[in-house]
Amino acid sequence: MPDMIRSFVAFDIDNKLVLRRFSEVQNILVATGANLKLVKPQNIHITMRFLGNISPSVVDLVYEEMRKISYAPFEVEIRGLGVFPSYNYPRVIWAGVQEGVDTLRDIINQLDLPLRRVGFKSDSKGFNPHLTLARVKTGQHKAELITCIKTCTDYEFGTIKANCLKLKKSVLTPRGPIYSTIYEVTG
User: What amino acid positions are annotated as catalytic residues?
Assistant: First the structure.
């Protein structure tokens, strides 16, 4: 059996100011004393669709479908913090997407049917554009963490230009995932 490739479709963040603001907020979150696993700023991205472990031939099929997507480069405003699944049980801390949501949804809608034809099921959770900043490992200092997150619900990270949709490879290591771009499609 060919080597499987853990993969996802995403927009990378290449705005240095936005990346610096991610780091600043991560430092504020850490200062609460909560037990967090931070996402390295260079690994933060807007996941359009997680694909899981797929064969090289399916990678090529996904890329062919990505090439058919039609979009022009657009602005994505990143603002505010929130959690999944809830404030009572925070597991993921994310930065929100304000401007650009409709275009992101249009892109995912263009990709959904072709991915189903290739063999992927529709995302049961639906598409909720966000950028994961940290994962909560334990309930340690949960009250302080939630208070901090609620005070940052309108934090302005900045705006990025989304002009390159990427098919990414993810290699899991003890020190965290290593991402690389397999294919990209510019808008």
Answer: 45, 130
Question: In whole angstroms, how far apart are CA 122 and each of 27, 41, 75, 162?
Answer: 36, 29, 26, 23
pLDDT digits 0-9 by tens, 156-185: 999 999 999 999 999 999 988 999 999 999
Classified as helix, coil or strand, 140 is coil
Phi-psi region of 176 (alpha: psi -120 to 50; beta: other; left: phi over 0): left
Read off the pLDDT of residues 92-119 as tens digits, 9 standing for 90 and up. 999 999 999 999 999 999 999 999 998 9
CA 7/CA 55 separation, integer angstroms:
10
Backbone angles phi, psi at 44, to 5 degrees: -75, 135
Q: Is 168 buried (19+), middle (13-18) or exposed (0-12) by CB count in 10 A? A: buried
| Domains contained in the chain, CATH given | 5-186 (3.90.1140.10)
